[in-house]
């Protein structure tokens, strides 16, 4: 066992525990930001450690944890999302009074996500997913005084539990077929034993796992909870669910399919491809009808999960590479959009309604530019990061002989233009009742930081696509190393 | 100096500067916009001066890897097909920027000019791109500034018009993206190297069926942008709802994107596919010529009249390209420029009349010539050019196209002739309806609509350019010949055209090395 390899886990565990302990210990007013400060320091330390660990795979806990380029790069996505969530929640009025639990729970969820993407074993993977899910159940219901928030938490708990149950069943069957819980062991077993690839038991396991992870990634038809939960949860939590959870779920997809069961790819390529098609179509059509920006972003996150699933469905490392790149782009675009929604929410009542955005671009041009960039890039307009990501995903689909996925993706993107650009039109249009100048607050620097950083990343990821892709390609290759 | 790259970067930089200017700095905004657009014009003149008219392949190429792993690069240059379009773009945008600066109302701060600069950068990028992905990037990117211009400053129905414009175009272009990826990957099977460079794809034999399918993917995008009948649904609303300056830019420059793509990518990259799609596309173009002309004849407003006439004129250009005839193709390139100038001038006249009388309805206008004689003269020039009267610039272009089409498919030329006749009907209707007859809709004989100095700055250069081309078309055509011959040759061979019709044998075309950036003059 290599103790140093799991350093990131220790750091995250330590700051999580510290933040939770501080949440119950009475603190002087001057130290009330202490949990957040500790959490951010822990995240920054984790990011720094991952940089030093970049290289060949190291294992910890006898292979339960794999610290390789894939896990490390995915940890970056997750930690960036967690850091942004803490910044977005900084001074959030809704979280007042229980801000300290907020920090501890976000850190716990982030630790779970990191565990998921670094797992080398079904058990670790399951623990990671459970840790992130349980933390998020509570986070969704944080605003105990608000009915929507409680409803959101309850809905997420129920659907999430079903997903978890299916995941365990799937893992149990997978263990039954291969006789091992190690991801590397499963791959080796499928490789060596002929005829195992089309075993009915394996297919059953694959179906159950796809459904369970579909719940977590909010893929159609397991997406019903998403709009309600996203709308009801406190907005920083929604942003975290939209980015971190999505990244962890996609990481699990890649580990289990492109990584562990690639020998049986004939069993799941069509299944996941169909899931991607349904998700892209339903997600984009659903988003068309929304008048609430958070709800619209929820549907859009469903649609985006569909594009991401293309990268899994093709089953190649090129697909994984494109998926990881698009995850970075997606996280940047989504966080920038949520930052603007949070800004507006703090200024006016019902700030998450589309109508509240009317004329906001004229009132705060920089916010208008950030939101426009995020929407335009989400819609896949070149030359921004969202376009480069979609281009790579569609390219991997055509390359893998699944051009139909790319065509559906292209048609779905056309539909998405309508609702993304609707936000842009409304923002730069004239305010309906002059509300845009109402209750102008000083912009919280933490929220502005996230918004601007997201916008910069949208452009930078496109310009510096090649260095980024080199990293993603390394990560994707690490997936298939036995 | 990487002049061609600067051509794109200078307006982009101007747009960024305008973007950060506070909205009240209108005087500074005008200065920045004019400097930016004039600098771009100057650079385009340098590019034209450095242009080697005997060279068929892309020249003055600037090449820089962008995403090497995916075969995508920044690759821009000019050839005989694009050189005049580049100049047209910079000239029309200079005039458009002047027009926008003259009447920069309260609401149009620097943002309006910034978006015009962005549109210029995107169009210049499109006309110089040598890489398919870069082509796509500019193709899509230009939608953003144009859509925002329509949404923010358009007429009453601006939201619907802008949305239809964007969705129509996106529908075609995303399928084009899939076709682009499929083309590059198919080419990779043949060459073993992933590259999106157009010149790398030109030598690849795709096989007839593949070639046809891939070409169809591109054609949908081109057809919507051109627009080819029946994909023209976005045009009337966008043209009539956009601010008039933006309509000038849309009609004069953006409408060339589709036909340019057809000649730059469609014909040379998919020679085997052209044969299968030649007749269907030609029929759509012919329907467009007749249908567009008839709509223009009965159009209720001047803007719609000029807009629909564009559908007809672009039908001519498509026909000139798709019949793969050397003379017709040269005529098509010339006609792209002619239509750009004439459409800009026609919309500029509409702008002057609408501003003076407060209306663009044909029914409510008449007899303006009495009060506005100078405008009447300018308008008459534009009318003559638009209906391709012998001696006008458009006559030369249409003559080339019809001559070439007649050589290949006489029946097509006969139907296309209808368009020439109709053009006289609708253009004279517009001229007579507004200029002659009893004065209508005005109280002062139309003196308010008279062309002043600020309008002359825009109209006179356009009219001078028309006269230049009318008197000396060879100055343009001579530079395009080598490139159009090269673009057509593979398709002509695939179609089995007689050798004497083929300008350059593809064997030689295939051997012509791609221009090395180091060899740039």
Task: Characterize this entry briefly.
Chain A is mainly α and 482 residues long. Helix content of chain A is 75%, strand content 1%. Chain A has a two-stranded antiparallel sheet.
The helical percent of chain A reads: over 70%
Strand composition percent of chain A: under 5%
Mean pLDDT of chain B comes to 86
Based on secondary structure, the structural category of chain B is mainly alpha
Distance between the termini of chain A: 18 Å
Please state the structural category of chain A.
mainly alpha
Largest sheet of chain A: 2 strands, antiparallel
Number of strands of chain A: 2
SSE pattern of chain B: HHEEHHHHHHHHHHHHHHHHHHH
Radius of gyration of CA atoms of chain B, rounded to a whole number:
22 Å
Total domains of chain A: 1
Globular, elongated, flat, extended or rod-shaped: what is the shape of chain A?
Answer: globular
The largest inter-chain interface, given as chain pair and residues per side, is: A-B, 35 and 34 residues
Shape of chain B: globular
Number of domains of chain B: 1
* Radius of gyration of chain A from CA coordinates: 21 Å
Strand order of the largest sheet of chain B: 1-2
Order of strands, main sheet of chain A, comes to 1-2
Which percent range describes the beta-strand content of chain B?
under 5%
If you average the pLDDT of chain A, what whole number results? 87
Descriptive report:
The complex is a heterodimer of chains A (482) and B (521). Chain A has helices at residues 7-24, 34-53, 69-89, 99-118, 122-140, 147-178, 183-192, 200-217, 225-232, 235-260, 265-288, 293-313, 317-347, 360-363, 365-378, 385-399, 403-428, 445-463, 465-479, and strands spanning 58-60, 65-67. With 482 residues, chain A is mainly α. Chain A has one domain. In chain A, strands 1-2 form a two-stranded antiparallel sheet. Chain A is globular, with a radius of gyration of 21 Å. The relative contact order of chain A is 0.10. Chain B is built from 21 helices and two strands. Chain B has helices at residues 3-20, 26-50, 83-102, 110-128, 132-141, 143-153, 158-191, 198-202, 208-225, 234-241, 244-254, 256-269, 271-298, 302-322, 326-357, 373-386, 393-408, 410-435, 453-471, 474-495, 506-511, and strands at residues 59-67, 72-78. Chain B has a two-stranded antiparallel sheet. In chain B, α12 (256-269) packs parallel to α14 (302-322) and α15 (326-357) runs antiparallel to α16 (373-386). The chains are: A mainly alpha (482), B mainly alpha (521). The A-B interface holds A 365, 369, 376, 380-383, 387-388, 391-392, 394-395, 398-399, 403, 406-407, 410-411, 413-414, 417-418, 421-422, 424-425, 428-429, 465-466, 469-470, 473 and B 19, 23, 65-70, 133, 136-138, 140-141, 143-144, 147-148, 151-152, 159, 162-163, 166-167, 170-171, 174-175, 177-178, 181-182, 185.
């Amino acid at each position: 066992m290599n103790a140093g390899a799991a350093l990131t886990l220790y750091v995250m565990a330590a700051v999580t525990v510290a933040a939770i302990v501080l949440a119950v210990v009475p603190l002087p007013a001057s130290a009330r930001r202490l949990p957040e400060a500790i959490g951010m320091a822990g995240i920054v330390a984790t990011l720094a450690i991952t940089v030093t660990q970049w290289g060949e795979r190291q294992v910890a806990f006898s292979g339960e944890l794999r610290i390789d380029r894939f896990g490390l790069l995915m940890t970056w996505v997750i930690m960036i999302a967690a850091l942004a969530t803490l910044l977005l929640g900084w001074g959030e009025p809704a979280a007042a009074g229980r801000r300290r639990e907020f920090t501890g729970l976000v850190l716990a969820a982030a630790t779970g996500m990191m565990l998921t993407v670094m797992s080398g074993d079904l058990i670790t993977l399951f623990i990671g997913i459970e840790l992130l899910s349980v933390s998020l159940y509570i986070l969704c219901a944080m605003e105990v005084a608000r009915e929507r928030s409680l409803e959101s938490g309850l809905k997420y708990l129920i659907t999430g539990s079903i997903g978890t149950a299916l995941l365990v069943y799937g893992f149990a069957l997978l263990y039954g077929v291969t006789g091992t819980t190690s991801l590397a062991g499963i791959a080796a077993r499928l490789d060596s034993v002929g005829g195992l690839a089309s075993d009915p038991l394996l297919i059953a396991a694959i179906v159950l796992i796809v459904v369970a992870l579909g719940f977590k990634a909010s893929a159609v038809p397991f997406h019903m909870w998403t709009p309600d939960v996203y709308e009801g949860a406190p907005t920083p939590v929604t942003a975290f669910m939209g980015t971190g959870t999505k990244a962890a779920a996609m990481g699990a997809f890649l580990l289990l399919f492109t990584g562990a069961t690639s020998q049986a790819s004939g069993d799941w390529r069509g299944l996941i491809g169909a899931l991607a098609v349904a998700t892209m179509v339903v997600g984009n059509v659903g988003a068309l009808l929304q008048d609430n920006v958070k709800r619209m972003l929820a549907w859009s996150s469903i649609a985006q999960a569909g594009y991401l699933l293309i990268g899994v469905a093709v089953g190649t490392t090129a697909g994984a590479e494109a998926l990881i790149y698009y995850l970075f782009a997606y996280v940047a675009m989504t966080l920038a959009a949520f930052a603007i929604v949070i800004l507006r929410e703090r200024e006016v009542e019902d700030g998450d309604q589309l109508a509240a955005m009317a004329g906001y671009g004229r009132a705060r041009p920089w916010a208008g530019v950030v939101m426009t960039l995020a929407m335009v890039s989400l819609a896949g307009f070149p030359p921004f990061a969202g376009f480069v990501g979609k281009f790579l995903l569609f390219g991997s689909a055509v390359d893998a002989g699944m051009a139909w996925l790319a065509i559906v993706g292209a048609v779905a993107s056309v539909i998405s233009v309508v609702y993304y650009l609707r936000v842009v039109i409304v923002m730069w249009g004239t305010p309906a009742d002059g509300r845009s100048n109402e209750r102008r607050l000083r912009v919280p620097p933490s929220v502005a930081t996230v918004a601007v950083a997201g916008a910069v990343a949208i452009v930078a990821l496109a310009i510096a696509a090649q260095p980024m892709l080199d990293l993603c390609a390394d990560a994707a290759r690490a997936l298939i190393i036995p | 100096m990487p002049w061609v790259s600067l051509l794109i970067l200078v307006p982009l930089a101007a747009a960024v500067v305008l973007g950060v200017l506070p909205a009240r700095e209108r005087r500074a905004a005008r200065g920045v916009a004019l400097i930016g657009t004039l600098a771009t014009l100057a650079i385009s003149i340098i590019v034209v001066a450095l242009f080697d008219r005997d060279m068929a392949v892309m020249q003055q190429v600037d090449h820089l890897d962008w995403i090497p792993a995916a075969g995508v690069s920044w690759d821009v240059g000019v050839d005989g097909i694009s050189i005049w379009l580049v100049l047209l773009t910079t000239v029309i945008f200079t005039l458009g920027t002047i027009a926008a600066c003259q009447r920069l109302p309260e609401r149009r701060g620097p943002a309006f000019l910034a978006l015009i600069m962005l549109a210029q950068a995107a169009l210049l990028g499109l006309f110089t791109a040598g890489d398919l992905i870069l082509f796509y990037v500019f193709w899509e990117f230009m939608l953003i500034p144009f859509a925002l211009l329509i949404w923010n400053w358009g007429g009453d129905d601006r939201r619907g018009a802008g949305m239809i414009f964007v969705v129509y175009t996106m529908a075609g272009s995303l399928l084009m993206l899939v076709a682009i990826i499929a083309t590059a990957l198919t080419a990779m099977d043949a060459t073993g190297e992933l590259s999106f460079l157009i010149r790398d794809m030109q030598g690849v034999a795709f096989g007839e069926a593949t070639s046809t399918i891939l070409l169809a993917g591109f054609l949908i995008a081109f057809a919507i942008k051109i627009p080819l009948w029946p994909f023209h649904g976005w045009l009337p609303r966008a043209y009539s709802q956009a601010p008039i300056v933006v309509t000038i830019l849309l009609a004069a420059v953006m409408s060339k994107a589709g036909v340019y793509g057809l000649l730059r990518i469609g014909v040379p990259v998919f020679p085997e596919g052209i044969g299968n799609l030649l007749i269907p596309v030609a029929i759509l173009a012919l329907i467009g010529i007749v249908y567009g002309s008839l709509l223009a004849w009965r159009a209720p407003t001047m803007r719609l009249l000029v807009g629909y006439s564009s559908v007809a004129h672009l039908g001519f250009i498509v026909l000139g390209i798709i019949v793969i005839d050397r003379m017709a193709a040269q005529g098509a390139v010339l006609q792209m420029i002619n239509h750009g100038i004439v459409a800009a001038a026609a919309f500029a006249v509409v702008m002057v009349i609408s501003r003076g009388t407060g209306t663009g309805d044909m029914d409510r206008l008449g007899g303006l010539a009495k009060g506005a004689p100078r405008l009447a003269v300018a308008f008459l020039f534009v009318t003559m050019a638009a209906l391709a009267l012998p001696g006008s610039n458009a006559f030369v272009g249409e003559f080339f196209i019809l001559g070439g089409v007649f050589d290949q498919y006489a029946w097509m030329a006969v139907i296309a002739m209808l368009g020439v006749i109709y053009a006289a009907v609708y253009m004279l209707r517009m001229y007579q309806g507004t200029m002659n007859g009893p004065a209508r809709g005005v109280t002062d004989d139309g003196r308010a609509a008279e062309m002043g100095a600020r309008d002359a700055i825009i109209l006179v250069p356009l009219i001078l350019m028309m006269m230049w081309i009318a008197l000396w078309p060879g100055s343009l055509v001579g530079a395009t010949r080598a490139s159009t011959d090269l673009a057509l040759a593979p398709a002509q061979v695939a179609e089995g055209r007689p050798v004497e019709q083929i300008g350059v044998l593809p064997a030689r075309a295939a051997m012509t090395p791609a221009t090395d950036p180091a060899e740039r003059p």
